User: What shape does this take?
Amino acid sequence: MKGRPGSSRQELAERSNAAEGEHRRGVFMISVAAELAQMHPQTLRTYEARGLIKPQRSPKGTRLYSRADVELLRRIQRMTVELGLNLAGVERVLELEAEIERLQGTVRELEARVALLEERERLAEERFAVAVEEVRRSFRAELVRYRRPAGKTLVRARDLLWPPPNGKGF
Assistant: This one.
């Protein structure tokens, strides 16, 4: 479906990035964010003081919460109310999740590097096989099978007497 607007992968990626940016853009003041998260505004201030959430600030210093912030507030609420975690436990859970995300990124990078190295190894093996075959073919033309003359025996060179006793040579 070429030619249709909005059909290219790049446009889809741009829309996805724009949606992600919109999701993280601070749009809610503290009272609206508190209402959306079903919390008291002072609870949001407490969470900010503990470092659990970091709202953006307007040029005048007003806290602005994004949709992602509101979702995080709801998760914190579930952890404290439903799971019975205290704020220190919530902090630890969020730290561990961030660490997992960081490590998953590292794993993805390492997997990509392994794939690249495996491809390079495969190409090197192919080039090596071609080079070995070329050498083998070049020697095949130069090598001839040795056939010992009938009735003659091979003698090591160091076992030969020189000049030969009969004086005829070889």
